[in-house]
């Protein structure tokens, strides 16, 4: 997040604000959480919070991303089908947990706040898509996947149904769903049909 010029942030205060924000996101949610509550819980003044972040949504994005920065592991099993199965199962697991609910709230906020959308895309979505692009390219190089298929459209077909279920809540998100999505997509993606 861009910071205003002047004294650098105190790392201790930054951590306190992000921890308080994470707790409030889980307890009351993004919309109900206030900067006053973040200030009271963290012990950092509202003026200082506003000096470092322009609004509570920026604080929430940074708090969420701070927790989510663990790299998604590359399964590299030797099979594109198995690699995608593992990654989409991991996505389902993430979406059904506490973080999935917060992610859904931030995605919703990103529809009207371009900064929230850009931060989520840059720090959470892009690294995972890069991993999946690598997996796709390996599958093409091994002759498992059809090279003429648009890679990004293919990845959307794998991720989209999971995100749709998260955001609309119309059906379950579990390993069976993840496996079904991957199995169905692979029918069209693979070279041996």
Tell me what you see in this structure.
The chain has 193 residues and is mainly alpha-helical. The protein has nine helices and no strands. The chain has helices at residues 11-27, 35-42, 46-52, 56-68, 80-96, 98-110, 114-141, 151-168, 175-189. α1 packs across α4 and α5 (80-96) runs parallel beside α8. The chain is elongated, with a radius of gyration of 19 Å.
Task: Write a concise synopsis of the structure shown.
The protein is an all-alpha fold and 193 residues long.
Secondary-structure blueprint:
Blueprint: H1 11-27, H2 35-42, H3 46-52, H4 56-68, H5 80-96, H6 98-110, H7 114-141, H8 151-168, H9 175-189
Helix pairs in contact: 1-2, 1-4, 4-6, 4-7, 5-7, 5-8, 5-9, 6-7, 8-9
Largest sheet: none
Tally of individual domains:
2
- Spans where pLDDT lies below 50 across 5 or more residues: none
* Share of helical residues: over 70%
CATH fold title of the largest domain: Tetracycline Repressor, domain 2
* Distance from first to last alpha carbon: 47 Å
Which CATH architecture of the largest domain would you pick? Orthogonal Bundle
CATH superfamily of the largest domain, please?
Tetracycline Repressor, domain 2
What oligomeric state do the depicted chains represent? single chain
Radius of gyration: 19 Å
**Backbone shape:** elongated
Q: Count of DSSP E strands?
A: 0
Sheet-strand content, in percent, reads under 5%
